[in-house]
Specification:
Strand 3 and strand 4 form a beta hairpin. It contains 3 helices and 4 strands; from the N terminus they run E-E-E-E-H-H-H. The chain is globular. It has a domain of 68 residues. The protein has a two-stranded antiparallel ribbon. It has 98 residues and is α+β, with helices and mostly antiparallel strands. Helix 1 packs across helix 2.
Length: 98
Amino acid sequence: MSTNKRQRICQCCGMPLEDGILGRNVDGTLSEDYCQWCYVDGKYTYTDMDKMIDICVVHIVNESFTEDQARAYLKQLLPTLDYWKNKKVGDHKYGKIG
């Protein structure tokens, strides 16, 4: 039996989300939208997309995915994610957390 369940991804870095790596809200509840590295105790870890790309690239490069390909992929993906779409320059409080 197949399911149509869509893979959840972190709305900051794009990493596939699983229950064991979900970030936590300030009240300790799990965030359904962010991983534990991007969202810790109700606070976002990253504010600069270029730095986020630098961090993510090293984790996704492999023998069939070059650094240039990884950078291009992330530069296309990240702006479509809620965190970056809702981010305002100079504002460290972004969007609603799920």
